[in-house]
Q: What sequence folds into this?
């Protein structure tokens, strides 16, 4: 157990001057224990020699069936009162808590806890950024399903479908083939809507000349992929063809440059410089990518201009998602998930990135 995730978390305690950490983020609890506690339904108290799951009787049976040598359970409706009693009984002088808790939870802890409490930032998230083989396998499985889902979408999409219908068809196929749920609201943006990087699905119908961007993420075995592809309905015109090729080349440049040790601003520059040199600097308004895993955005939360503080590491899984968005005309974004290895980057999302033109008839 010395190499367990909980044990690796404990090794950070001295640097934070804490005797225990209260984990309330459900994704972090799942990462540390494998127990699927819903958000707000309890907490995990990790001390230097114990790990205690504090939750209520809705989880009593699940905890009885939970096979763990590291974690014990306490059933109560008074989560934080129980945490205070546990800390008092174990003589915890300083308890850290995740700085992402709501003010309501902080207020409760501040009133109840006899131990000193201190906010701690990113202790579990920093562990999550580097994936182990089990996590990589889950992310690869999720990416494979998304690639297959996109191929299905290309086979059925046609002019006259609304953006909403496209999103519903994709959602049905993904869930019917093993996805647990979407990790964010699917983006289907057509025509002038595709010029909005974070467009919301509308009832606009696909028509000849449209560029259509589909950005989606789905959980498989608890881990989410994140993929974007852009296709055309009929002939998109010379400008959009050129924009598509430019975005695709920028994506390829980033993939070629991705390796352990590269700083986020330099990795971004590998693709962004191509877009800037072509005169589209103002039409690319977001970062080049971010980390994924148990959450759709996790460390590194973003890499882009000015992010020299971000250093890419082996066994991270990050996205690369350059885009160009021409107001009132249309946009293109192409996004892949990359596994960083000592030899460079492996694409996990394998769906073709050549421009697909759907028959407009």
A:
């Amino acid at each position: 157990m010395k190499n367990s995730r909980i044990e690796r978390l404990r090794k950070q305690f001295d640097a934070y001057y804490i005797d225990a950490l209260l984990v309330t983020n459900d994704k972090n609890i799942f990462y540390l224990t494998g127990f699927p506690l819903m958000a707000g339904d309890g907490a995990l108290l990790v001390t230097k020699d114990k790990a205690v799951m504090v939750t209520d009787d809705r989880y009593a049976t699940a905890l009885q069936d939970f096979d763990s040598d590291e974690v014990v359970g306490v059933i109560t409706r008074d989560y934080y009162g129980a945490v205070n009693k546990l800390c008092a009984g174990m003589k915890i002088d300083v308890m850290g808590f995740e700085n992402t808790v709501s003010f309501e939870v902080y207020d409760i802890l501040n009133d109840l806890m006899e131990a000193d409490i201190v906010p701690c930032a990113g202790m579990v998230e920093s562990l999550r950024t580097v994936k182990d083989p089990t996590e990589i396998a889950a992310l690869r499985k999720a990416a494979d399903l998304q690639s297959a889902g996109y191929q299905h979408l290309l086979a059925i999409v046609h002019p006259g479908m609304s953006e909403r219908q496209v999103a519903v068809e994709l959602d049905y196929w993904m869930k019917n083939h093993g996805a647990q749920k979407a990790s964010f609201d699917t983006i289907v943006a057509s025509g002038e809507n595709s010029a909005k990087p974070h467009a919301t699905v509308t009832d606009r119908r696909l028509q000849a000349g449209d560029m259509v961007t589909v950005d989606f993420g789905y959980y498989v075995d608890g881990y989410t992929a994140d993929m974007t592809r852009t296709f055309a309905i009929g002939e998109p015109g010379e400008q959009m063809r050129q924009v598509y090729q430019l975005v695709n080349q920028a994506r390829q440049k980033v993939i070629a440059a991705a390796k352990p040790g590269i700083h986020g601003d330099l990795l971004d520059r590998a693709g962004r410089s191509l877009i800037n040199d072509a005169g589209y600097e103002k039409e690319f308004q977001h970062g080049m990518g971010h980390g994924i895993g148990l959450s759709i955005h996790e460390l590194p939360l973003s890499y882009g201009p000015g992010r020299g503080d971000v250093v890419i590491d082996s066994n991270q899984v990050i996205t690369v998602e350059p885009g160009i968005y021409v107001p009132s005309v249309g946009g293109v974004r192409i996004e892949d998930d990359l596994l960083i290895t000592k030899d460079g980057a492996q694409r996990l999302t394998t769906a073709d990135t050549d421009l697909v033109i759907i028959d407009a008839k």
Observations:
- The two ends are 62 Å apart (CA to CA).
- The longest strand covers residues 227-233.
- The chain has a mean pLDDT of 96.
- Residues 133-156 form the longest helix (24 residues).
